[in-house]
Structures are given as structure tokens and as C-alpha cells.
Design goal:
By secondary structure, the protein is of the alpha/beta class. The protein folds into 2 domains: 3-45 and 168-288, Rossmann fold; 49-165, Calcium-transporting ATPase, cytoplasmic domain N (3-Layer(aba) Sandwich). Helix content is 42%, strand content 24%. It is built from 13 helices and 13 strands. It has helices at 3-15, 23-29, 39-43, 61-72, 78-89, 122-127, 136-144, 172-181, 194-204, 217-229, 242-247, 259-264, 276-288, and strands at 18-20, 34-38, 49-55, 97-103, 107-112, 115-120, 148-154, 157-165, 185-189, 208-210, 232-236, 250-254, 267-269. It has a 7-stranded mixed beta sheet, sandwiched between helices. A 6-stranded antiparallel beta sheet has the order 3-8-7-6-5-4. Helix 12 links the parallel strand 12 (250-254) and strand 13 (267-269). Helix 1 (3-15) packs antiparallel against helix 13 (276-288) and helix 2 (23-29) crosses helix 13. It starts with a helix and ends with a helix. The chain binds adenosine-5'-diphosphate and magnesium ion. Residues 39-40, 72, 75, 77, 79-80, 105-108, 119-121, 148, 150, 190-192, 215, 240 line the site of adenosine-5'-diphosphate (ADP). Adenosine-5'-diphosphate binds next to helix 3, helix 5, strand 5, strand 6 and strand 7. Belongs to the cation transport ATPase (P-type) (TC 3.A.3) family. Type IB subfamily.
């Protein structure tokens, strides 16, 4: 491509809120075959809310919620904010908490008023030696509704199953349809549970799902998708997405996301809107499509 074409394309990008940090990205995007998307904060708002809370018989709901929220009050995960907010809304005071520990991609644990409390994914409970079989039907139903099931263990026993739901951004369905019209495959890579991810993918017409990946697994997922489909663009917003953004042929960061993601990406979508992705690819095809 000529330097002039790249300059024109980059300038046009800036006008529509697509910031090319490297001219090379504009050239590569026209040959993209697959777009891999992070789920939380990229496809969704990244602001989950607590929708369900089912307590084991014999335990008091408000006390369990207080213990859960106390642990989560030290976590910065969006899920943590959802759980703390619902305790606050219920007017529940948080008990004192010590020995907080966050286990990446798993959950959190601490001692609440001297009692061990753990909150997180099924795999976190498994790691703690707790089977969640008793809640299998509930978890399946919640997952099929596109909600993310979570568990709480108190004093070494399973105490509750809950679910958070994270609304899909209003702009997401049209952006995915536009990517399909451009002839691209659309994939989702997420740390969330498989059933939930499948339900959301079905709803959005996403072609391929890689779920239950630990943060370190996102890079491996990107490599696998690249090997299967060819030239790959990855879109993400979080600190966890930085390695995948770097690994992709073109990394696109959501402009309302974290600083780290934007620094690892070649393209920043200023609107915080997924529509920037098909816009960027269409722009690349329009400005550089026939020049070699
Ligand atoms: P994502 O947020 O994209 O799902 P993460 O790697 O941050 O990916 O988290 C993976 C999973 O670990 C979450 O879906 C959740 O089940 C669990 N988890 C992580 N942090 C927390 C937390 N603070 N509280 C409860 N569960 C958590
Ligand atoms: Mg995210």
C-alpha cells in the first residue's frame, strides 16, 4: 500500500472513532478471516448484576449475603461489585474480614468474623474439594438463561449458588451481523462457564465459543483459532486481554476499557462500541483493498 493510502485511511478512521496506532494494522485488517471477541466488557456492558441467590437449607439468607459481600468488598472484579451492591441495597452491614485472597480466574476467599468464606466459579469449589452436584440442575438452568452461576462456601461447606447477569451492549448484535456480512467468522473467548457462554453465543449468532479459559489460556485460544481460520483480529477491554491482543494479527481495544489493553492494541475503538470493528475492516478494504 502507498503511504498516502495509509494516511488517508488512518485519517478517515480518526473521523469515525477508530484510532490506528499503527498503519500496519490498517493493511492487515482487510485480510482478516476471523474476529475473536472477549465477552465481559466487550460483548457485554461489563456491569453484572446479581439475579439469583439460592441458599442451602438451614442457613440465613441475609447472613450468607453479608459473608459473601464482605469477602467481595476487597475484590475489583465486576462480579464483586455486583455482590457488594446487592448487600448494600438490602441494607446489610458488612462484617469484618481478614486474610483476603484473590485467585485469578477462580474467585476470592477470606475469613469473615473468623469463619472461612470462599466465593467463585465451580472450578474454584472443585479446587477447594467441594462438589456442587446438588446444584447441578439450578446451574444448568441459570447457564441456559445466559446467567453466570457462582458458588459460596462457608466454613468448608457449600452454602449457596447465585447467578450474575451482564447485559449485552445494545450495539453488539448489529456489529456481529456486519462482521458476518463482511464474510468473517466470529468467535468468543471467555473465562465464564461454558453453558452461559453457549447461551449468549446462540443469542448473538456467534460461530465459535472458547469458554472457561483461565487468563493465561486466552493466548493459546487465539493461536488455535488462527491456525484454524487464518488471519485473526482480537477485540478486548481488560488487563487479562493484553497478551491476546498482542498475540493476534491485529489487536483492537475497546476505548472505554483498561489502559493496559489500549497499550497492547494496534487499534483503539474510541466509541467503546463494537461497531468500530466492522467499520475498521470495511475501511481497510475500501482504502487498501486493491493495492498490493
Ligand atoms: P471473566 O470475567 O471474563 O469471566 P475472569 O478470569 O476474570 O474472566 O474470571 C473467571 C471466572 O472466575 C468468573 O467468571 C467467575 O466465575 C470467577 N471469579 C473471578 N473473580 C471472582 C470474584 N471476585 N468473585 C466471584 N467469582 C469470581
Ligand atoms: Mg473483558
Amino acid at each position: 500500500a502507498t503511504p498516502t493510502a495509509i494516511m488517508v485511511g488512518t485519517g478517515r478512521g480518526a473521523e469515525i472513532g477508530v484510532l490506528f496506532r499503527k498503519g500496519e494494522a490498517l493493511q492487515l485488517l482487510k485480510d482478516a478471516r476471523v474476529v475473536a471477541l472477549d465477552k465481559t466488557g466487550t460483548l457485554t456492558e461489563g456491569r453484572p448484576v446479581l439475579t439469583d441467590l439460592e441458599i442451602v437449607a438451614g442457613l440465613a439468607r441475609n447472613q450468607v449475603l453479608a459473608q459473601i459481600a464482605a469477602v467481595e468488598s476487597h475484590s475489583e472484579h465486576p462480579i464483586a461489585r455486583a455482590l457488594v451492591a446487592s448487600a448494600e441495597e438490602a441494607g446489610i452491614a458488612l462484617p469484618e474480614m481478614t486474610a483476603f485472597e484473590s485467585v485469578t480466574g477462580m474467585g476470592v476467599r477470606a475469613k469473615v468474623a473468623g469463619v472461612r468464606v470462599a466465593v467463585g466459579a465451580e472450578r474454584f469449589m472443585a479446587q477447594l474439594g467441594l462438589a456442587v452436584d446438588g446444584f447441578a440442575d439450578t446451574a444448568a438452568r441459570l447457564g441456559d438463561e445466559g446467567k453466570s452461576p457462582l458458588y459460596a462456601a462457608i466454613d468448608g461447606r457449600l452454602a449457596a449458588i447465585m447467578a450474575v447477569a451482564d447485559p449485552i451492549k445494545p450495539s453488539t448484535p448489529a456489529a456481529i451481523a456486519a462482521l458476518h456480512r463482511l464474510g468473517l467468522k466470529v468467535a468468543m473467548i471467555t473465562g465464564d462457564n461454558a453453558r452461559t457462554a453457549q447461551a449468549i453465543a446462540r443469542q448473538l449468532g456467534i460461530d465459535e465459543v472458547v469458554a472457561e479459559v483461565l487468563p493465561a489460556g486466552k493466548v493459546a485460544a487465539v493461536r488455535r483459532l488462527k491456525a484454524t481460520h487464518g488471519q485473526l483480529a482480537f477485540v478486548g477491554d481488560g488487563i487479562n486481554d493484553a497478551p491476546a491482543l498482542a498475540e493476534a494479527d491485529v489487536g483492537l481495544a475497546i476505548g472505554t476499557g483498561t489502559e493496559v489493553a489500549m497499550e497492547s492494541a494496534e487499534v483503539v475503538l474510541m466509541s467503546g462500541n463494537l461497531q468500530g470493528v466492522p467499520n475498521a475492516i470495511a475501511l481497510s478494504k475500501a482504502t487498501l483493498g486493491n493495492i498490493h
